Amino acid sequence: MKSIIGKKLGMSQYFKEDGTVIPVTVVEIQPNVVVQVKTFDKDGYEAMQIGYGMRNKQTKAIKNHAKGLGSFANFKEFEGLKNGEKEAVVGGKFDASLFEAGEVVRVTGISKGKGFAGAVKRHGFHGMPASHGHKAVMRHVGSIGQRFPQHTLKGLRMAGRMGAVKTTTRGLKIVNIDLEKNTIAIKGAIPGNNGGTVIINSAK
Prior knowledge:
By secondary structure, this protein is mainly beta. It folds into 3 domains: about 10-30 and about 95-115 and about 165-204, Beta Barrel (Elongation Factor Tu (Ef-tu), domain 3), CATH 2.40.30; about 30-95, Double Stranded RNA Binding Domain (2-Layer Sandwich), CATH 3.30.160.810; about 125-160, no CATH class. The protein contains 3 helices and 14 strands. It has helices at about 40-45, 60-65, 120-125, and strands at about 5-15, 20-30, 30-40, 45-55, 70-80, 80-85, 85, 95, 105-110, 115, 160, 165-180, 185, 195-200. The strands form 4 sheets. It has a 6-stranded antiparallel barrel with strand order 1-2-13-12-9-14. The longest helix is centred in the N-terminal third of the chain and has 7 residues, at about 60-65.
């Protein structure tokens, strides 16, 4: 299992040698530094804590926790003491070279927030008929329950806040890796806004 944290820069195009154009999303791989290694003996489980992103102001708590490794904006914990073939060592770094072009990955991020949305947009409801006596009810939900048990059941699909949730897109292919700029070009779209944090995981 391989995992790395990056920042979504936006979509672009990649031109192959035969002239084929591939739509890609470019992800900048920020410095992924191992800040802490957790073991069975000390913590009861095996994991590695990664520090990523940079912040201008550094609190004493983060300064003490990072032990001079950097001024990190966030921390993320991954299971296991290996990232692919690389061992997790405090102070060790992971970059774009962790993956290879042509590799299939899954990308996790926070989807774009759509705000308050109705049932038609949020859940794909067909809506009411537009004629034969119907007035301004075309996009209404319709019945939300029966006379018994006299309350709305939990989990009913209704209007509400849409988006801004953790989402994973699977089966994405890495088209190109630029080690100089430390970027990965992934075929197709990935979750989140430009500038948002995403996690790239190997498919297996």
